Amino acid sequence: MLTDPSIEKLKTKTTSSYDLVMLVSERARQLVDGAQPLVPADDAPNAVSLACREIVADKVVGVEGNVKCDVPITREERKRRQMIEEERRRKNEEDREVAIFDQEADGGLDSLLATVSRQQAEDAEQEAEAEDIDEDIADEEEFEEDEE
For helices 47-56 and 17-32, what crossing angle results, to 10°? Predict the structure, then answer.
């Protein structure tokens, strides 16, 4: 049961209980996904309690309509995402080399070209994803600089 902050304090921050539940759940998801807490998280037992404390402190507010906000991620989360991307790239390179070797051993030039074309398309898609991650990292660094 949530006792700190009280439900009465939380209810004053939104127009309805539904809005409050949606706001708390969205912020808790962001915190679980690596967002930086906006209030001290020293003794918060979980992400929901921390989200409630942020709402009571007016650090997180609800906005009507379909609004997508970008929340800066922690350095640890950024490093984890970079490691995942590097592993994915390395594995794709190994797969490409194995496929090329197998195709050359079979002597099928047409199937070799098809494999290379498919791999190039996958590489282009991964590069686009990597650019998105790089943009998120740049946005976070800007956010951190603005905070300082």
Answer: 120
Q: What does the DSSP assignment read for 52-92?
A: HHHHHTTSS---SSS-----PBPHHHHHHHHHHHHHHHHHH
Pairwise CA distance, residues 61 & 28, whole Å:
13
Look up the pTM and report it: 0.49
Residue 27 located in a structural domain: yes
Are the CB atoms for 16 and 22 separated by under 8 Å?
no
Domain that holds residue 28: 7-56
How many domains does the structure of the chain reveal?
2
At which residue do the structure tokens 């350095």 appear? 75
Q: For residue 117, give both structure tokens.
A: 């074309």
Check whether residue 84 and residue 123 sit in a common domain. yes
pLDDT tens digits, one per residue of 87-143: 999 999 888 888 777 766 665 666 666 777 788 888 888 888 877 777 777 766 666
| 82 & 31 share domain | no
Q: Cα separations (Å) of 88 from 48, 74, 82, 118, 132?
A: 32, 21, 10, 16, 15
Residue 22 shares a structural domain with residue 80: no
